[in-house]
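User: I'm putting together a teaching handout on how multi-component assemblies are represented. Below are the sequence lines for each component of a complex, exactly as they appear in our records. Could you produce the 3D structure of the whole assembly as structure tokens, so the students can see both representations side by side? Please keep the chain order the same as the input.
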Amino acid sequence: MTLNVAIVGAGLVGSAFIKQLAASKLDVAVVLIARSSKTIVSMDFSPLNLANVDFSAASEGGWTPAQIAEFLSKSPVPAVLVDNTSNEGLAQAYPEFLAKDISVVTPNKKAFSSTIELWNKLFDKSNKALVYHESTVGAGLPIISTLNDLIATGDRVHKIEGILSGTLSYIFNEFGSSDVAFSAVVKKAKELGYTEPDPREDLNGLDVARKVTILSRLAGNLVAGPTAFPVDSLIPKPLESVESVEDFMAELPKYDTDMAKLRDDAKAEGKCLRFVGKVDLTGTPSVKVGVEKYDLSHPFAALQGSDNVIAFTTERYPSPLIVQGAGAGDAVTAMGVLADLIKIVQRGGRK
Ligand SMILES: NC(=O)C1=CN([C@@H]2O[C@H](COP(=O)(O)OP(=O)(O)OC[C@H]3O[C@@H](n4cnc5c(N)ncnc54)[C@H](OP(=O)(O)O)[C@@H]3O)[C@@H](O)[C@H]2O)C=CC1
Ligand SMILES: N[C@@H](CC=O)C(=O)O
Ligand code: NA
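Assistant: Of course. Below is the structure of the complete assembly, with chains in the same order as your input.
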């Protein structure tokens, strides 16, 4: 076996990742699979059987990030943490893994949009372990790799602009093109697996703000974090203090007419609504996230389903380089995570 892998998180993305990994026959041994309260582990590093992941047989009790890092540090071959959770604590612990030469692959945006101090630790040149996070922006679409390649080869980014949320793309595509209620489309986006575990993180703009923070930082503009620039929220004011997701979803239909008015006003102008993120580095750097109106002839108006579209305007690409396609969903997100793991295997698990 070339590498030992711990998979933390076996929800929508994690389960799809396990299926794709099993089918890929990649030369790795999965030695730990964890959910929040159950952990399956092979203490002697013999490979777990991915065709039969049975949490019912696992003993109760989740492992802490420190326990997982300690276990992987004993691996006789290079080890990789695949974090398929949206957990903040695990994200904050990546430096502990990197310090033990354990590589990290993840679709979890939390670490990369956290403090600059954490960002610097993740990308410290002295780390021997590797960090790949393609699915943190645009799911499996080649956005992080494209931006990294542009920069590594000496291009200069002028602007990055796009629709970066699969959930909000789906909502505005569906809601904008029919008379369906806003709350019904939000519910459907959740059922389709596009939303964050808590869909309010999509609706309040924070998920897009996290992605824009990551893109801005990779382009060299080290914004302090996702709350350091203007972000529009689609959460009705009276629902901001609602505690549970269930109560929030139950209350949302009361505000359908407000959202319908926004849509109908845009329609009356011959326009449509889109939720966009922008990084502009042409003068004083600026970053923003919010709802904008677009002419129906604009490429952003013609998206389908959960499509994302990202336009990079650079010195070499004054007519922007555009990446477009499904930007959320279990299979397309897992594909980005697996492609990252394959890169780590190809590099032998170390820099
Ligand atoms: N869904 C999508 O389209 C996309 C998702 N992502 C990202 O992928 C990640 C996963 O999303 P998704 O699969 O939809 O989320 P889910 O809620 O379906 O799954 C999350 C999984 O993480 C587990 N988990 C949470 N906390 C811990 C912990 N402390 N220790 C161990 N396991 C834990 C949960 O355990 P349990 O099963 O016990 O609840 C669950 O299995 C998120 O970071 C999301 O932002 C990125 C791009 C697109
Ligand atoms: N909730 C996110 C999932 C991918 O990052 C989205 O809708 O884009
Ligand atoms: Na991506």
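A couple of points students might notice: The chain is about 35% helix and 20% strand. Residues 134-135, 137-141, 143-144, 336 surround sodium ion (ligand 3) (CB under 6 Å).
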